[in-house]
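User: I'll paste a sequence; please echo it back and then give the predicted structure.

Assistant: Echoing your sequence first, then the prediction.
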Amino acid sequence: MFKYKALDISGALLDERQLEIHLQKIAADQILKASSDKDTYPIPRLKDNIRFIYDVYNFLGEDLKNNIPIHPAGEWILDNFYIIDKNAKIIEKDLNRKKYKNYVGIANGINRGFARVYVLAREIISYTDGKIDAPSLERYLQSYQSKKTLSMEELWSINTFLQIALIEKIRGICEKIYLSQMQKRKVENIISRLVEFDESTLYKLPKKYNLKMKENIESKFPFIEYMSYRLKNYGKKAYGYMEILESQVNKMGSNIYSCINREHYDIAIKKISIGNSITSINALNRMNFVEIFDKTNGVEEVLKQDPCNEYDLMDYATKEYYRAEIEKIAKKTKVSELYIAKKCLELASRDFPQNERGSCIKDKRKHVGYYLISEGKQELYTILLNRKISKHDYLKNARLYVNAISILSIIIGCIFGIYIHIKTESFVKAIGIFLLSIVPLKSIFIKTSQYISGKIVRPRLIPKLDYTNGIPEDKTTMVVIPTIVKDVDKIRAIFKKLEVYYMANKSENIYFTLLGDCSCSKQEHEVFDEELIKARYGGMQ
């Protein structure tokens, strides 16, 4: 069975400034490689974490029914397990092995082979005790990128890896909860046998897990704290057992009170940590990652410097289309996304004073999108690959398409004609069949080629400007509705519809008008022409 590696990062709580410095340091120290190792895929570990958390959830439920006090951090598990499980299922569905392997990997250090974004997420969660909000996340990402730039794909997926890291942290807290509840069951069994002399209420101990804390002396503190609590409830009856407990604790080089205080402190810490983790999972689900992406993505900042000042006015779908094209070009050329964006800006800024915005309308080459989705793409590839890239001749491709359809139709038509000639020995019928079959054959081949193209060729998005907040004055628009007018009643009806269009799209700098034309006639003038010309909305003049 293939064995997957688990990422192990732990750290003390740092304040925001300290963590920013730490992230800058690890960014400077990291050596990167093109992809992540398949044995670092985090989903198998995530599934194991969810199984363990679910077992602890059931364990706590049983103790709650049996009136055994549960760890305060366990109350968060009982109330919020469904949130953890729901997010884990979404992550499992979204993050497949192929997608993970394509992330930039780390080529040095103890985290060698893991995806950089995964390591970054674990670092943030480990040093913040699982407490994340949008402003702090933006600062952490910007601090890391002050030394190394994250790709757009990594920025989009940071939410996924932060949640994986939070679930890993919850699993670590659940280990402490599990051990604590195990010790409480052991205490209850000892009390039943030695103090109450009743073995009918002994509790079953669940299966053992291979936990790091299992043999650690710290696992004794929950036992000491709960045993002391239970024996004190029996007063003099359990005085002898209390002395034995004190003697055993003294042999450990400690005393009962210090063990109790240490356990209470650990309980408080774990309660805060799991509260932070579950609250952060909910916060991540509510965060506007589009806004975070825009603020932390270096490519976006470069594209916003578009000499035409048009990129910033475009709708979100168009911006995403531009960024996706940069991502594709980066994968093909093995060149940084940020470098590609800067080259697009450099090409668009040639011989163009940026304060003369009006000239952009006359020359599309002064817009960054021209080099990403239009004819300028070959020029960009030429610079990135440092070799001449020939331009696509779209007219030549169109001619090839038309000629291929025509030739294929003629060949099939000839086959039909030859077949008819063989069967009927009539040259006239063969020519007739040939001529009659050309048009339907062309139609069939055109429809077939269009259907196949629609399945295999990705459609190109038409760039759009975002006018959700209104049309600016310099882009005032007239909506012209052409129509044929025959009588006065139709003119009135059309004007009513025009009013509906206007009311439905009432905003500044947009106007509606009708472009009327007369109906067909054999005469230059009709008797009703004058009446139509004089017609006005609401009556006649």
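Residues 16-286 form one domain. Residues 195 and 234 are 9 Å apart (CA to CA).
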